[in-house]
Amino acid sequence: MQTFYAETLTQFADSLFQAAGVAPDEADRVARSLVDANLCGHDSHGVIRIPQYVDAIKDGRLKPGAPFKVVKETAAVLVADGGWGLGQVQAHRLLDRLVPRAQALGLAAGTLKHCGHIGRLGEYAEAAAQHKMVFVASVNNHGFGRGVAPPGGTEARIGTNPLCLGAPTQGDPVFLDIGTSVVAEGKVRVAFNKGQQIPQGWLLDANGKPTTNPGVLYKEPRGSILPLGGNQAYKGFGIGLLLDMFVGGLSGAPCSAPGRPNLSANAVFFLVLDIAQFAGAEHFLQEVTGLAGNIRTCPKVEGAPEILLPGDPERRSKAKRLQDGIPLDDGTWGHLMKLAQSLKVSLPTVEFKAYKP
């Protein structure tokens, strides 16, 4: 286990991307996005992804510097093609174009195809909240990465297709960023890298039997991740299925299907709503802030921990890791060291520098 301060790890990630041929501005955007995911406690979407991104750049699946191409637009709708550019770069370009449209019209929706993995969706919900916008988003894996089997099935048919909902308040925003499976594939990969077993209730093997071995996702015959919902898994699977349909169908990208190539990609759907143009910003912020406070002060059963709202765990993790550093398991660190050696990038020293998100 190695521990690094955020700015040190960001500089290292930035150097790796630049050595792989990424321009400084794009390298900085992606590096800060990945490290922010680590800070927020989502190691599955953090620097563990760097080798995946660099491999895709090397073999041409991802194309740094790709333009953001508008395919079709109306006053409130934007359909874009990312040209296989880096996901965080193109997704922020999409959001940056949607916010002024929503400010003018009350709401705006946009899609993006041919785009690299865009990282943690909560990052975009937080950005939208700064503009006093409600945010709704999902992605699929551009047809690839089918990790979730339907209830009763033994073969995966859809991805973990996340759902992100965000709302501004008078204080910290409330944002929910969840997969429609019981766990993100990246969290299984973290356990696999660590050589650890995963909890019961996450995975099924290729025969549809419960397993604690994360390797069933990465070796043939492959297993699957369970849908969200436990004994009522049809709920999580149904949400994931419809999101896959929405994202693929609206963006012009594929829905999940057999035989799709591994493109390290997302298709994207974003919807932003300007709270000022509905019942008014004052009403919205007063009501949602009151509701958030009422939830926090709910009486607790004996021995229950503090009641938290969506977004609280990320903020607490960020505060702690900014202070104490970001831990990297030996498997992830080993992959990054190997990549640094191949790119002739110096390994970072553990030196504190104030982090500027």
Name the average pLDDT.
94
> Helix fraction?
25-40%
The value of Rg in angstroms is 20 Å
| Helix and strand sequence | EHHHEEHEHEEEHEEEHEHHEH
Portion in beta strands: 15-25%
Main β-sheet, in a few words? 7 strands, mixed
Shape: globular
Unreliable stretches (pLDDT < 50, length at least 5) are 352-357
Number of helices: 10
The total count of strands amounts to 12
In the sheet with the most strands, the strands line up as: 2-3-4-11-5-6-7
Separation of termini? 24 Å
Broad structural category: alpha+beta
Describe the secondary-structure layout.
Elements: E1 2-4, H1 6-19, H2 24-39, H3 50-58, E2 69-73, E3 77-85, H4 87-105, E4 107-116, H5 122-129, E5 133-140, E6 163-167, E7 174-178, H6 185-194, E8 203-204, E9 210-211, E10 224-225, H7 233-251, E11 265-274, H8 281-296, H9 312-324, E12 326-328, H10 330-343
Parallel strand pairs: 3-4
Antiparallel strand pairs: 1-12, 2-3, 4-11, 5-6, 5-11, 6-7, 8-9, 8-10
Task: Explain what the structure shows.
With 357 residues, the protein is α+β, with helices and mostly antiparallel strands. Helices cover 39% and strands 18% of the residues. It contains ten helices and twelve strands. The chain has a seven-stranded mixed β-sheet with strand order 2-3-4-11-5-6-7, with helices on both faces. Helix 1 runs antiparallel to helix 2. The longest helix is centred in the N-terminal third of the chain and has 19 residues. The radius of gyration is 20 Å and the shape is globular. The two termini are 24 Å apart.
